[in-house]
Amino acid sequence: MTERIIIDCDPGVDDAAAILLAFGSSEVEILGITAVAGNIPLEKTEANARLICELANRTDIPVFQGCGRPLLYPARAGVTVHGMDGLGDIGLPKPASAPAARTAVQFIIDQVHAAPGDVTLAVLGPMTNIAVALSVDPGIAPLIKRIVFMGGAAFCPGNIKERAEFNFYFDPHAAQAVMASGIPMVMFGLDVTHKAIITQERTERLKRLGRIGSTIADMLNAYGAGDPCLHDPCVIAYLIEPEIFSGVEGFVEVDCVSSLAIGQSVVSLTERELAGRAPNCLVMTEVDHDRLFSLLEERYQRVELEAS
Ligand code: RIB
Ligand code: CA
Fold first, then answer.
1. Ranges of each domain in the chain
2. Ligand 1 closest atom vs CA 124
């Protein structure tokens, strides 16, 4: 059955790799792409999302501008492995299309009401847009089919801080608000995404596909110098072929108070840790990374054919 999704993202090279994977996969129907501040400021993440659609000749997919800063904290300007332009500084043009008028938050609310129980949110960046949508219209929570997201680090160190993964660290309050929403969740934290390593051999195979493959390979080579893990495509790959992954059910919450561990994902698994609470999230821990990269290659080939 086709999975109807909204991709919420902060492109970002691995976000771009995830969006292109979705373009090449008929298992998912992309209702729209919503951009959020994260890897780089919102103006660039939104423009990059439009550019990725243009590169793949998919300007039929609407792109919406979301939140430009986290719920409480100012946007933390960090060193970004995504380059100044957010797509690896490989010399890509500016997008030709114009931004959509509607906001990302209103688009999410409208789509969920239009198809109750049928829309999955694929969240690839800080969760600010989702948290704001849930605040503007709390009634959408029971209407969202599920949220499959990249964020957190359940049983391993963080990447932006010793105990925190970037998406959760950038907006911990939004992450906690979403984790507490009661919406069915599937978490792709660093536990599993750190096992999806970009190698030279793999990017060389992508280069041989053609224009699209060569572009994403150049982006990944630039990005991989700072972060060799392919985080965001895991979310889309799960929607296409869930059996590539495996994990455990747990209760996930986000530390929003500790000065030393702000943004840390705290995961309870055992009966004692759960303390009577039902699990709220499937926490992914394993991936068949060879199958994941074969899927990328296979689906980028389709994007190549459809874009030509
Ligand atoms: O920690 C990795 C996550 O942070 C990925 O989504 C990457 O794009 C950045 O947003
Ligand atoms: Ca991202």
1. 3-307
2. 6
Point out the residues that are catalytic: 231
Per residue in 55-82, pLDDT (tens digit) is 999 999 999 999 999 999 887 766 689 9
Q: pLDDT tens for residues 257-266?
A: 998 899 999 9
- Ligand 1 midpoint to CA 263 (Å): 14
Look up the CATH number of domain 3-307.
Answer: 3.90.245.10
Ligand with the closest atom to the CA of 81:
1
| Ligand 1 pocket at CB < 6 A | 10, 12, 14-15, 38-39, 124-125, 150, 159, 165-167, 231-232
What contacts 308, CB < 8 A, 6 or more positions away? 210, 211
Q: How far does the centroid of ligand 2 lie from the alpha carbon of residue 48, in Å?
A: 12
Which pLDDT score, from 0 to 100, does residue 1 have?
Answer: 84
Ligand with the closest atom to the CA of 14: 1
- 14 with 217: CB under 8 angstroms? no
Distance (Å) from CA 266 to ligand 1 centroid: 18
Model pTM? 0.98
Q: What is the mean pLDDT of residues 229-252?
A: 98
